[in-house]
Write a structure and sequence with these properties.
Radius of gyration: 24 Å
Strand content: under 5%
Oligomer: single chain
Order of helices and strands: HHHHHHHH
Low-confidence stretches: none
Helix content: over 70%
Protein name: Peroxisomal membrane protein 4
Shape: extended
Mean pLDDT: 91
GO cellular component, one term: peroxisomal membrane
Number of strands: 0
Number of helices: 8
Distance between the termini: 66 Å
Structural class: mainly alpha
Length: 221
């Protein structure tokens, strides 16, 4: 057996040892956070930056790699903090070795503040962090809305009423969301997230201007 195979076997005996499972889960969570962040951010940044950002190809590639790195690093850091906090709370609670009912909330709270809530030395919050938090916030609102009309869990106790609200709520929510964002974009564009503002400017503002067939059909400018 080669030295590489011996090392591989020894390493596998460690990672498969239940004694180290909790700590290794932290490492695996960090790895998964980094990989997922890179997979999600890279194609998004590639499209958005090449479509809506000016500059040389080198400058655009630099921005893409920076956004990808930030997203991957933030998710890896958050996963690490969350898993470590959960592990600490598990062994510090009233029932050591068992997860408490609010451990996930407090671990998420701590991780959210530490990774996404803090500002840079210049007092800024990165656009990538803002996008991640807004994404999560939107999903939380949708989940809480669903929970609020679940009989037995929310404020609606009637199964029939719950079913009707669930059926009718989405079109109302969609209409209000689009009505609100168009109003904000028209009168207070500086409050709209920069990526969304660039997309909306391309669709709704630049479509008002042309001076030839070329920039009417083929290219805006």
């Amino acid at each position: 057996m080669s030295s590489v195979e011996v090392a591989k076997k020894a390493l596998e005996s460690i990672i498969l040892n239940p004694k180290y499972a909790d700590l290794l889960a932290v490492v695996k969570a960090a790895r998964n956070g980094a990989v997922y962040g890179a997979k999600v951010r890279f194609p998004h940044a590639l499209v958005m930056i090449f479509l809506f950002r000016s500059g040389t190809v080198q400058e655009k590639l630099s921005l893409i790699l920076k956004a990808t790195q930030t997203h991957a690093r933030n998710l890896a850091k958050y996963a690490t903090v969350y898993k470590l906090t959960m592990l600490m709370l598990k062994h510090m609670g009233s029932n050591p070795g068992k997860e408490g009912p609010y451990d996930t909330f407090f671990a998420g709270l701590f991780g959210g503040y530490l990774v996404f809530g803090r500002r840079s030395k210049r007092g800024h919050v990165s656009s990538v962090s803002k996008q991640i938090v807004i994404f999560v916030f939107a999903r939380v609102c949708l989940s809480l809305a669903k929970l609020s009309v679940q009989p037995g869990a929310g404020i609606i106790k009637s199964h029939e009423l719950s079913k009707r609200i669930s059926h009718d709520a989405w079109p109302v929510f969609a209409a209000l969301s689009w009505g609100s964002v168009m109003w904000l974009f028209r009168w207070y564009p500086e409050t709209v997230q920069s990526g969304l503002r660039s997309s909306m400017d391309y669709i709704y503002v630049q479509s008002d201007h042309w001076d030839s067939l070329r920039n009417f059909i083929i290219h805006n400018k």
